[in-house]
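Supplementary Note 3. Input sequence used for the single-chain structure prediction.
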Amino acid sequence: MSSIFALIDCNNFFVSCERIFRPELNNKPVVVLSSNDGCVVSRSNEAKALGIPMGAPAFKYKPVFKSQGVVQFSANFELYGDISQRIVKALTRIIPKIEVYSVDESFLELSSLGIKDYTVWGQAVRYSILKSVGVPVAIGIAPSKTLAKVATERAKKNPNIDDVLDLQSLSPEARAPYLLQTPISDIWGVGWRIAPKLKAEGIYNALDLSYMRPKHAQSLMGIHGRQMVAELNGQSCLPLFIEGKQRQTIMHGRMFGEDTSNFAVIEAAIASLSARAAKQLRVDKLLAKRAVVYLSTNKHKPGYRKFSFAVNFLTPSNDSGVLSKELIKAARASFSAGIDIHRANVLFYDLASENGLQIDITGDVDLSQLFRSKARFEAVDSINERYGKSTIHLAAEDLSKVWQPKKELKSPSYTTEWHELPILKT
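The predicted structure, written as C-alpha cells, is reproduced below.
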C-alpha cells in the first residue's frame, strides 16, 4: 500500500496561541518577540501585510508598531508548548500514526483510514482543532512528505483554497501549477546555502527541481537531493518518524536579561538551565554521561568571546543537583573575572537509557547512588507536578534572577498556572 501523508501546520502559531485568550485581537496586527523582546519570531497576517519581516529587530520597528497599532507580546513558550500538546492529543485521537515534526507541525500517515474525499476530511480536522483548541491550521495532503509540505504552503498562501489542499488525488500534470508557484527557497530541505547553487543551475521553483535528473541532484546536494526530486514526483522516500527513538542530546539555553560578570548570577543561570534539562532527562528516562556549559559574550559588541566547560560523569545521572553542581564547579574553576556574559547554554550528551545501565568492570558506576537519586527526584517531580513546577528547586537558582530574559510584554500562562487562570466576570 502506497503512503499518504497529511501535514498539519498551525497558522502563525505563537500569535494564534495569544489570540485564543484575546479574541479582540483577531484581524489586528500582532507580533510575538523573542527572548529579551529583541526580535520578531511570529507575525499575524496583518503584521506581515505591514512589511514587518521575520526576525525584525523590535527597536528598529518601534515607529511602525506605534503608528500602525501593532500589538506586541513577549514569547510565552510555556503557553505555546501546552497548546501544542493539546493539538497533538487531538490528532492522535484521529490516528495514532503521527510524527510531531515541530511545535507547530505534525505529519499523519493516512493510508489505513480509507478516506474517500481528502479535502472534506481535511476541512473536518481543521474545524475540529479550531473548535477544541482554538488554533487555525493549514493541511496539505500528498503521497510524500515533501509534497505535503508544498501543499500546506500553497494552502496558506492561496486565499481560494481555504487552508486545505489535496495533492494526493491530483495527477502529476494537475500538481504542476502548485510546484511552479513554490520558490526554490521554500522547498523543505533547501536551505539558504543550497538555494543560490540551484538558481545558478537554472532551478528557480519546485517544478524545475522535479524535472532535474536524480543523479545531477545528488551531485549537487548529496543523497538528500536525489530523495528530494523523487519526493516532488510523488515517490515517498521519507517515512513517518514515530516517537520512540532515543534522544542523542538535550540542551537548554537562554540569553540573559542583562550582561553580567558576577559569577553568582551566572551560577544561578547554570543551575536553572541544568535543572530544566535534567527534568527532560527524567521524563525521557535517560541518563547523561557527559555535559558541557557554554558561556558567551554579546556577539554584537566588540571582543566577542565564547567559553565551554565540560564534565564527564563516572555514574551517569539525571539528578539536577549532581549535574548542576559539577557544571558550576567546572565553570567557576576556569571563569575569567571581568568578562560580561550575555548567554548560557547547558548541553547533556552521550545519553544512556535509565533502565539499561549496568555495573562496569572497573566498578566506577555506583548504582546505589543512582537508585537514591531516582527515588529522591520521583518525589520532587511529583510534588512540583501537584503544587507548581518550582515548588521545590535548587537553592542556587535563588542566588539571582537578574539573568532571566526580560519579558515585559508576556501574557499569563493561562493553561499551566492556577494563579494565572482567566477570571470570568459576570
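The chain has three domains: 1-170, 171-245, 249-399. Residues 263-283 form the longest helix (21 residues).
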